[in-house]
Structure formats: C-alpha cells, structure tokens
Amino acid sequence: GARMYDRLSYKSGAELCEQMAQECDTAILAFSTGKDSIAAWLQMRRYFRKIVPYYCYVVPGLSFVEDSLKYYEDVFQTRIYRLPHRSLYRFMRCMVFQPPEHVTKIEALNLPGEEYDDFMVGELVRQCGHLPPAAYVGTGIRMADSPMRRIGIMTHGAINHNQKKFYPVYDWKKEDLIREIDRACVKLPIDYHMFGRTFDGLDYRFLKPIKEHFPEDYKRILEWYPLAELEFFRRGERDGVLGQEERG
What we know:
The chain has a 6-stranded mixed sheet with strand order 3-2-1-4-6-5. It has 14 helices and 6 strands. By secondary structure, the protein is of the alpha/beta class. It is globular and about 60 Å long. It has helices at about 1-5, 15-25, 35-45, 65-75, 85-95, 100-105, 120-130, 145-155, 175-185, 190-195, 205-215, 215-225, 230-235, 245, and strands spanning about 25-30, 50-55, 80-85, 135-140, 160, 165.
C-alpha cells in the first residue's frame, strides 16, 4: 500500500484524497473537535468509504468533551475512539499538579514515554480496528496556519509516508472551512464559546471557564491533577480555591 502512494501527483487536498482512496478506501482521522478536524472529516468522507476517527484526552471522561464527541458521532454516524493524549502521559511523568503522596503511585504505573507519539497512536488504531497498513491518518493541518506550516508542506508535501499521515485540507483557507462547515450544518464544540479554541491544556485560560460552566468536570480534573487549583492562586484568586474544611 504505502509504496503505491509514492506515485501520487496531486494539485489539491481533494485530489490527494481521491488518489489515496483508490489505493485504500479506509482512512483514520485525528479528531480534536476543532474547526480544522471537522473540515478534514467533511473532506475525507467524500472520498473514503470508511473513516475511523480518534480523539485524545488530557483528562478522561469530561462531560463537556463527551457531549461534543457524542454529537459528532451522531452527525457523522461513526464511533470515535478515545485514547490518552501524549500530554496526559507527559504530565503524569513530570508530576504536573501532583501532590507528593501521588509520586510513588505514578512512578509504579510504568507509563509510556516519548515513544507514545502520533505515529504510535495511529498504529494502535490500525491494530484495534483491524485496519490495513495502508490506512493513513488524516489531520486538519493547513498551509494557512502559519508560515512554518506553509514552508513545511511546500517542501515535504501533504503526505508523510514515514509517519503514515496526510493533510486532506492542506490547501483550504479559513473561508473554505467556514463555508463547508456551514453547508454541512455542523456545530462547533462549546470549547470555542468557552476558550476561543479547543480544550488541550490545564492552564488558567481553560480551568477558569470549566470551573464556572462545568463545576463537576472541574472536580474531575482535580481528581487527576489535584494541585491544578494553584492556577487560581497564581492569579491571586484565593477565594476561588476551596478551603481545607470544604475539602474534608
């Protein structure tokens, strides 16, 4: 499969998808719930018979994230795999927001190291989904994102055989995204309303809106990262932090 792809001569994301789908009618999608990944899904579903999407979480089972994922599962009539984000393992290995009593427990877990990257996640999805080796991972990366992206794609192309990934909407501009998402009547996740972007970290700009809008999710974050409350201390928001007596 992969060697066949080497003959690709595409002039657009659409042509890239069309030629890839002739080689292998299944593709994997790295789905973040963000605009770019929704656009990638809309583009890919025109060409691939089967799309296997996965979402990577930094905190498992947050209700606002699960609600979004269920919505997209309904819209696209496709199950979305949930997998740990490599940041989750990195945060745990680096003891981010962990109290001293968690350290020995976490060290005993024998967590994956830096080898757990996008390529390994793709391999896991291929294994679990019994997918052919020629099923590549599509992501919503676009040239218009940044000058570095543009140079990277101009230099190396919109398909990476070593990493088995490709960029189905690499040539789309922002107006293309908005037009296609509107045309398909797909809603953006609540993340944009809360943070102006998708949720992918544990700093104040994410924690404050979650604490305000989804207090149960905030509590769940504290179960995984008990000292995340320090983000509020840093801002001098002492009253925002639960007193010891409330904690019990």
